Amino acid sequence: MSNPSISVADALLTGTQQRVLALLYGQADRSFFTKELIDLAGVGSGAVQRELSRMLRSGLVVQSLVGNQKHYRANGESPVFYELKSLVDKLLGVPGILAESLRPLADKIHWAMLYGSIAKGRAAASGDIDVLVVSDSLTLEDVYGSVASAEKRLGRAISPMLYSSAELRRRVEASQPFLTKVLAGDFITLLGGMDDLIATGQSGSRRPTQGRATSTGRA
Fold first, then answer.
1. DSSP state letter for 211
2. Residue 3 Cα to chain centre, angstroms
3. Can you tell me the distance from the alpha carbon of 23 to that of 83, in angstroms, rounded to the nearest whole number?
4. What are the tens digits of pLDDT across the range 175-211?
5. Parts of the chain with a pLDDT under 70
6. Cα 49 from Cα 117, distance rounded (Å)
7. Same CATH topology for 9-86 and 93-198?
8. Considering Cα of 207, then 208, then 211, then 213, what sign does the dihedral take?
9. Domain ranges for the chain
10. Is the CATH number 3.20.20.70 carried by domain 9-86?
11. CATH architecture of 93-198
């Protein structure tokens, strides 16, 4: 009998390492104070502080004092900064965490995709994360409930938009300005796909899904 498959991230890193690196290297343009990292990681104070101590000693992160609070951020001067940031973006970045949070609803989702500044690769650290979900049975409350865990892990607000498949097709056929702009730009598929929803020729610049989401799809 074959062993159960595990993600690349789980094979390489402990759960605590994943969560701390996802915060520090996934949002390398900002710093986090200690309690903020502990709250966002959600794995316990001692575990997070041990990882921070190891990362600080190895030079992966830098520490500064703001008032009487210790702040941590990714060390842009580390010789492995760009390689580690690239790995974190692929394995633990916004697309992977979002796809993981939506996966319990996968059998009810025709298509879920990330669009906006993050998909374009130029998001501000505090901006909302824009997600479009196509489903014929979910409510917006269902989607908000599912992405709540991703909001907590990322420390960012997630702004989902929900369409039925019929509504999506109708808006695309009517060349509705918002959807036309989204589909003509950069987006990242999280779950499912658009091929059965939108006629050939309407697709935008689809990118391969990153991180764990590469193995997800409609159940």
1. G
2. 28
3. 16
4. 999 999 998 888 888 888 887 676 533 433 333 333 3
5. 1-6, 121-126, 196, 198-219
6. 32
7. no
8. positive
9. 9-86, 93-198
10. no
11. 2-Layer Sandwich (3.30)
